[in-house]
Design goal:
Largest sheet: 6 strands, antiparallel
Strand content: 15-25%
Shape: globular
Radius of gyration: 19 Å
Distance between the termini: 43 Å
Mean pLDDT: 90
Length: about 270
């Protein structure tokens, strides 16, 4: 749709901070963009506060393009089949259960902390370097539960390798048949979803942002991208910049207490 090639540079590390900082310093001409996730706006500002990381000031949103919600799952040998049974089991356990996440401050880490505080049980956090080691540890019984994106959970769910107890979105997932939402399970409003958005450095010109936004909308609403996203159990989710920023600010305010309670800091 842009009529030119796009070079994708995977700049991993520090939970996405390295890539975000790179684009925040880039020339605001529309040629350097960040494919950001919810963590960029909801978590990193708290962790890198001393470094002045302020995504609402440093970036200019173009459009959100996708979202993926998460499921809460347990080791299949755990003697629970519902969320209520899990909470009762966790409270009755003589020592805290272990849970994994892709790292301190990750969305999945914070999701467990929110759920744990609401439900009132203790648990021990075991951080890993990415999502794959989390799943490996759970399958081996080294940890007992975790959150992860439905795109990761679906093959394990289909093979009955793990037990998914609840889906953290407003509606059930068509990819996880029979799995109730947290709302249905007695914990309303406990959502864990990561949206994906394209942002430019602050100061990008209006005409450039509009051209990028129009291309993002055409791609997201077109059949090719929708088919590719759906095949990855990811939902197409187009929102123009103003709607995206309003959503991000609302979720930032909602996430702030959990992030601060977890004591996350790069210091």
């Amino acid at each position: 749709y842009l009529g030119q090639s796009v070079l994708v540079e995977n700049n991993g590390g520090a939970g996405g901070y390295l890539a975000a900082a790179q684009i925040a310093r880039a020339r605001p001409d529309g040629y350097s963009l960040l494919y950001a996730t919810a963590a960029t706006y909801l978590v990193l500002p708290h962790i890198y506060r001393s470094k002045g990381f302020e995504p609402f000031a440093q970036f200019r949103p173009v459009a959100s393009v996708a979202k993926v919600a998460s499921g809460f799952f347990v080791n299949k040998d755990l003697p629970v089949r519902t969320l209520a049974e899990f909470v009762a089991h966790a409270k009755a356990s003589p020592k805290p259960l272990n849970y994994g996440s892709p790292g301190v401050g990750s969305n999945n880490h914070l999701a467990v902390e929110r759920f744990r505080k609401i439900a009132g049980f203790e648990a021990t956090h075991v951080p890993f370097r990415g999502g794959a080691p989390v799943m490996a540890a759970l399958l081996a019984g080294e940890i007992q539960f975790a959150f992860d994106a439905q795109s990761t959970l679906v093959p394990y769910f289909k093979s009955d390798s793990v037990r998914v107890l609840a889906f953290a979105d407003e509606a059930r997932s068509p990819f996880l048949p029979g799995v109730p939402t947290f709302d249905e399970s007695g914990y309303p409003g406990l959502y864990q979803r990561s949206w994906h958005t394209i942002v430019a450095p602050a100061g990008a010109p209006d005409d450039v942002v509009e051209k990028l936004r129009a291309a993002a909308q055409r791609a997201t609403e077109g059949p090719t991208a929708r088919e590719r996203l759906t095949a990855m159990q990811t939902d197409p989710f187009y929102h123009p910049a103003a709607e995206f920023e309003a959503m991000a600010r609302k979720e930032y305010a909602e996430a702030a207490p959990s992030v601060e309670a977890a004591g996350l800091s790069a210091e």
